[in-house]
Amino acid sequence: MSFRTIEWRDNKVIMIDQTRLPGEEIYNEYEDFQSVAEAIKGMIIRGAPAIGVAAAMGIALGAREIIADTHESFFQQLSNVCDVMARTRPTAVNLFWAIKRMKRVADAHRDRELAYIREVLRLEAIRIEEEDLEICKAIGRHGAKLIPEGATVLTHCNAGGLATAGYGTALGVIRAAHDAGKKIKVFADETRPWLQGARLTAWELMKDGIPVTLISDNMAGFFMHKGEITCCVVGADRIAANGDTANKIGTYSVAVLAKENNIPFYVAAPVSTLDLSLAGGSDIPIEERHAREVTHLHGFPVAPEGISVRNPAFDVTPARYIAGIITEKGVVRGDYERGLKKLVG
């Protein structure tokens, strides 16, 4: 990878500003947890695994900021820091997974001096980042086997290095297939309204020298019907116990089109994206974002002023449309309820 999505350096969190891509490759420095929380809210960093890493690093920063004379005061303030992080994005379960993990580590060392607890949290945040990179590479290895030689793969949104600590989930599968010598091509949906496919996925793949063609969201069915797409691979922000999957808005439409055209539709995500506490997709909370994201493009109005707008950031693809869920522990097919439970058991 020729860029770093997020890293801890000199007691600061460094993130590439994804709102500035592809025009500018700008790295922002964050020294306090509130600014990290705002970066997550403002989509400066996005993608479920990357959000989890950012939250962990934000908590580690917050722990360093806490002024406390007693352990009771420290842990009360740390809980507040975690609450701020939890309010940033409601759909991506990796966020809550990372927060729970950081809380668990702090609690496990509750009887140690505060300086030690702060250092343990810093090291845990870095560990989460390092683990994510290895997890994505494992997802890539498992998923590459599903991509035929010479395939044209459709992907939606950005589930690449920018959405993770590096390498990517859906793009990890694509990268691994490419690295294995398979002569593949990619169709990237633009992914309105934030254009993650146009701005981010296309940018990443071009940097890696992987052939990519950009299409608008409403062109996917056209190319599927013409036989120009071999398979679809997307990421996920939350996967329910029955395999229903929340991903960027428009994913459900792609899955339905793929089913109609007998094209396999795969989901690539780490086990941390599973939320087995939810029976099905109807229980997944769906974030709704500001109307301006739909009515404006780079600050310019593209709709009448005062128009009523709905802007859900995610939709849910029912498990019946999914040919396989690719994780770092292998590929689950068919009976998702049983297969996913086995992964975490």
Task: Summarize the topology.
Blueprint: E1 6-9, E2 12-16, E3 27-30, H1 33-41, H2 48-65, H3 71-86, H4 93-108, H5 114-144, E4 152-155, H6 170-179, E5 185-189, H7 196-208, E6 212-215, H8 220-225, E7 231-234, E8 238-240, E9 245-248, H9 251-260, E10 265-268, E11 274-275, H10 292-295, E12 296-297, E13 300-301, E14 314-317, E15 324-327, E16 330-332, H11 336-344
Parallel strand pairs: 4-5, 4-7, 5-6, 7-10, 8-11, 10-15
Antiparallel strand pairs: 1-2, 2-3, 8-9, 9-14, 12-13, 15-16
Q: What can you tell me about this protein's structure?
A:
With 345 residues, this protein is α/β, with parallel strands linked by helices. It folds into two domains: 6-136, translation initiation factor eif-2b, domain 1 (Four Helix Bundle (Hemerythrin (Met), subunit A), Up-down Bundle); 139-344, Rossmann fold, CATH 3.40.50. Helices cover 41% and strands 17% of the residues. The chain is built from eleven helices and 16 strands. The protein has helices at residues 33-41, 48-65, 71-86, 93-108, 114-144, 170-179, 196-208, 220-225, 251-260, 292-295, 336-344; strands at 6-9, 12-16, 27-30, 152-155, 185-189, 212-215, 231-234, 238-240, 245-248, 265-268, 274-275, 296-297, 300-301, 314-317, 324-327, 330-332. It has a seven-stranded mixed beta sheet. Strand 1 and strand 2 (12-16) form a beta hairpin. Helix 1 packs antiparallel against helix 2 and helix 2 runs parallel beside helix 4 (93-108). The radius of gyration is 20 Å and the shape is globular. The protein starts with 5 loop residues before the first strand and ends with a helix. The mean pLDDT is 97.
